[in-house]
Design a protein that fits this description.
The complex is a heterodimer of chains A (286) and B (347). Chain A folds into 2 domains: 33 residues; 239 residues, MetI-like (MetI-like fold, Orthogonal Bundle), CATH 1.10.3720.10. Chain A starts with a helix and ends with a helix. Helix content of chain A is 74%, strand content 0%. Chain B has 347 residues and is α+β, with helices and mostly antiparallel strands. Chain B folds into 2 domains: 222 residues, P-loop containing nucleotide triphosphate hydrolases (Rossmann fold), CATH 3.40.50.300; 109 residues, Beta Barrel (OB fold (Dihydrolipoamide Acetyltransferase, E2P)), CATH 2.40.50.140. Chain B has 9 helices and 20 strands. At the A-B interface, helix 8 and helix 9 of A face strand 6 and helix 3 of B.
């Protein structure tokens, strides 16, 4: 057996699954988004679904909400992950327990955290009942709306809970590899603590956490179960909208469902390309 | 120019039971070049970082020109540290690296550019400003690190193992550069090293540190000729330490009785007789000489080393190769300990 044949055989199982399931599914979805569904007599390619998508107010509101949730949760994740990693770099009593609690959410599935959030923070949840019992609020309805709210705060909360330790662990490993010397050097060269962070730590951390940030962004942009459980029915995020259209009994809605899904995939792909360019530029400076 | 005084300086790290630096008392004159010498982990760099303000002081004081600076932040001390592994910022080019300290001080751009160009010329890196640090050799990186420190005109320059990562030929070059810079800038300089030869070649005075304690602070010659303890003597490569008893100006050892010069600080009683290998002469029978059996002869180019034994004591001597008579291992020969070269350590 030649070396080339061996490589092909080794790669075949993985590549075939990827091609059939991913690319095959994508091709099917793409065709349906262009109105091609011979099964129900739609035999002509057109861009009607895309046209109606961008003319549909619900889609535009969904897009705005999705971008708000994914951008804000990604940025907040980055900021809070850096802050916590800086804290964990120091020695303090109870660090081991704090570290365990900090990294614990990594192992919990999103859906469990979402259900937990619902049970605790909804207006009929444990926190509201506790506040009512304690006399802090007169009625459970006075409890702040943080689940199924207009700004998607409950959804953002779940993403942060899960993502901060994920990114934090990456930042911490970068900081540990870097040691204290660069920061100390900057201080001895005249940098204040803030200047040392701004000009020395941050430029070192950012290239390291960019890949993590794009993973967080892509995930939150396309995530379904958390906004489904904790979001409002209208407007909802794009993934929930696409799923609702897909499950519509009227098969004529299928092209629009597929156009929504294709849009999501294209948007995330563009973001990945932009991120790679940014990373390339940063690497070029090194 | 700035003097440095360390007064009963102590440092114990959090979670550690043993102090890293203990009761350090030291006076460094303005413009002096001092080496902190000692084995790895003895507290040299910790002391350096306390001077820089990068590590807090557990007890004791750091004074610059007599003024206590314990509570002054590192960025306000005008003390710059240069690290062993250069620590050039990888996302900055050479000029940006060198200008870092000036930018942190919000120096106008024109002045920053001018001073960066001047200092790069001084460290022989003119025209290297736009290069990335990855394109530089180890020696060039070290020069950039030095330029970055000097461009802000510090009062005190601290060098942490400045030559440790360099090849032998670059070490000589860098050593000369450090001496030139020290002379030109007249900046009080402290450098850390574990290499006694490097300390002797560079420093005006050496602070020898063992286990967090300052064990001897004096001119380099004293470490060779007047070591304060057996350990110091051995650290400086001297194995000729023989037990004896002093009575007046005579020290009696297993290899014989030797006359020492009057006024040596050791009191009468048990002592250790110390003499450098290069001070022992192969000779004829004369005063302060004894006969011994040559165990080993090692030709070392310019020098030849002899190990010889007399009454159970092993001695060591090095003699210039072109001066020695033709003794070989197994021969007996007379060895003389010149009276003025003998040093005594009290037991």
């Amino acid at each position: 057996m030649t070396k080339r044949t061996t490589i092909v055989l080794l790669l075949f199982p993985t590549i075939s699954v990827l091609v059939l399931l991913f690319l095959g599914g994508l091709a099917m979805g793409l065709m349906q988004s262009f109105g091609y569904m011979p099964l129900i007599g739609m035999n002509d390619f057109n861009i009607d679904a895309y046209g109606s998508l961008f003319g549909d107010q619900e889609f535009l509101l969904s897009l705005a909400l999705t971008l708000w949730i994914s951008i804000s949760s990604t940025l907040l994740t980055m900021v809070l992950a850096i802050i916590t990693a800086l804290a964990f770099r120091k020695t303090f009593s109870g660090k081991r327990i704090a570290n365990f609690l900090y990294q614990f959410p990594i192992t919990i599935p999103h859906i469990v955290i979402a259900v937990g959030t619902l049970l605790v923070f909804s207006q009929s949840g444990m926190a509201a009942r506790f506040a009512h019992q304690a006399g802090l609020i007169a009625d459970q309805n006075q409890f702040p709306v943080v689940v199924s709210d207009k700004l998607g705060l409950g959804i953002i909360y779940v993403y942060l809970w899960k993502q901060i330790p994920f990114v934090g662990v990456i930042v911490l490993s970068i900081l540990q590899a870097m040691g204290n010397n660069y920061e100390e050097l900057a201080r001895s060269l005249g940098a204040s603590k803030w200047q040392a962070f701004r000009h020395v730590l941050l430029p070192t951390i950012i290239p390291g956490i960019l890949p993590a940030s794009i993973i967080c962004f892509s995930f939150t942009f396309g995530s379904y179960e958390v906004p489904f459980l904790l979001g409002r029915p209208y407007p909802t995020v794009i993934s929930v909208l696409a799923m609702r259209l897909y499950q519509d009994v009227d098969l004529n809605a299928r092209p629009q469902a597929m156009a929504t899904a294709v849009f999501m995939a294209a948007f995330i792909s563009i973001m990945v390309v932009l991120y790679k360019r940014l990373l390339g530029k940063m690497s070029g400076r090194r | 120019m700035t003097s440095i005084t360390l007064r009963k300086l102590c440092k114990t790290y959090e979670g550690s039971k043993h102090p890293a630096v203990e009761n350090f008392d030291l006076e460094i004159e303005p413009g002096e070049l001092v080496a902190f010498l000692g084995p790895s982990g003895c507290g040299k760099t910790t002391t350096l970082k306390m001077i820089a303000g990068l590590h807090s002081v557990t007890r004791g004081d750091v004074l610059f020109n007599g003024v206590r600076v314990n509570d002054i932040k590192p960025e306000r001390r005008e003390v710059v540290m240069v690290y062993q592994n250069y620590l050039l910022f990888p996302y900055m080019n050479v000029a940006e690296n060198v200008g870092f300290g000036l930018r942190m001080r919000k120096t106008p751009k024109d002045e920053t550019d001018r001073r960066v160009a001047e200092i790069l010329k001084l460290v022989q890196l003119e025209g290297y400003g736009h290069r990335s640090s990855a394109q530089l050799s180890g020696g060039q990186k070290q020069r950039v690190a030095l330029a970055r420190a000097l461009v802000i005109r510090p009062k005190i320059l601290l060098l942490d193992e400045p030559l440790a990562n360099l090849d032998a030929h670059l070490r000589d070059e860098m050593r000369d550069l450090i001496l030139d810079i020290h002379k030109k800038f007249e900046v009080t300089t402290v450098f850390v090293t574990h290499d006694q030869e490097e300390a002797v070649l560079l420093a005006d005075r050496i602070a020898l540190i063992f286990d967090g304690k300052l064990v001897q602070y004096s001119h380099s010659k004293d470490f060779y000729e007047k070591p304060a303890s057996e350990r110091i003597s051995r650290f400086f490569g001297n194995g000729n330490i023989i037990e004896g008893t002093k009575a007046g100006t005579t020290v009696t050892t297993g290899s014989g009785a030797f006359q020492v010069r009057p006024g040596l600080p050791a009191a009468d009683g048990p002592v250790q007789l110390v003499i450098r290998p290069e001070s022992i002469r192969l000779s004829r029978e004369e005063s302060n000489s004894f006969k011994a059996l040559i165990l080993k002869k090692i030709y070392m180019g310019t020098y030849t080393r002899y190990c010889f034994e007399a009454d159970g004591h092993i001695w060591d001597t090095t003699t210039e190769s072109n001066e020695i008579p033709g003794y070989e291992a197994g021969d007996s020969a007379w060895f003389t300990l010149p009276q003025d070269k003998i040093w005594l350590i009290e037991r």
